[in-house]
Amino acid sequence: xxxxxxxxxxxxxxxxxxxxxxxxxxxxxxxxxxxxxxxxxxxxxxxxxxxxxxxxxxxxxxxxxxxxxxxxxxxxxxxxxxxxxxxxxxxxxxxxxxxxxxxxxxxxxxxxxxxxxxxxxxxxxxxxxxxxxxxxxxxxxxxxxxxxxxxxxxxxxxxxxxxxxxxxxxxxxxxxxxxxxxxxxxxxxxxxxxxxxxxxxxxxxxxxxxxxxxxxxxxxxxxxxxxxxxxxxxxxxxxxxxxxxxxxxxxxxxxxxxxxxxxxxxxxxxx
Length: 271
Known about the structure:
Layout: H1 2-12, E1 37-45, E2 52-61, E3 66-71, H2 77-83, E4 92-97, E5 100-101, H3 107-111, E6 115-117, H4 132-136, H5 154-168, E7 172-176, H6 184-197, E8 202-206, H7 210-213, E9 218-223, E10 226-231, H8 233-236, H9 243-250, H10 254-270
Parallel strand pairs: 3-8, 3-9, 6-7, 7-8
Antiparallel strand pairs: 1-2, 1-4, 4-5, 9-10
GO molecular function: ATP binding; ATP hydrolysis activity; ATPase-coupled transmembrane transporter activity
Organism: Racocetra fulgida
Protein name: 18280_t:CDS:1
């Protein structure tokens, strides 16, 4: 009986995803071409009777800006990242990318035109049993792919995901803690690639390592589903009781982080 009730619930109660393609409302060819983002009073919750997990988020970014999102676990960072793909539909508010409200177009048109590099890439999941020799071999176009990508390390999987974004020439890239479990050398390679190869793309990065995003154009600090700070990293670090400054101080790398942020600030001030 429980199984029947569960089936009825799945059939009648679960929401169906939006249309894959809406013929009368397709984005322009080559969209997005700039990567300009306007988030207006965005609110999201996971169920009709659930509390809001994003509460009136309003943020504007310019084309090709690099935005870092930080905050404590459960503050809404990942929910904000997935909202660009409409894995969860907004309760209210909007996300507009290059003059297109993403809620008005089909999911295929949306998801096929922006790129996500998740913490655990779907096609290339974590390794199970790979020898050190196999793990250290360079990846080539002819490299075989074992089931679940078992012959690739976590860092290699993420590099492949980044290579995919490069091939697609994506103008909007969402990285959800994509460097959280990589070694320093691989992390450095990933960050260098982002700065050099994606210089004309908008990149939104959620990262555990503040070093990863301290030289970005802007930092968005979240807490309990709210935006509590959004500005240039160096300016945020000048606030004595600021959220971002506090995170940097707790990291034990404050002197180095503020030096990196200052160099970036002076560079853009002279431009």
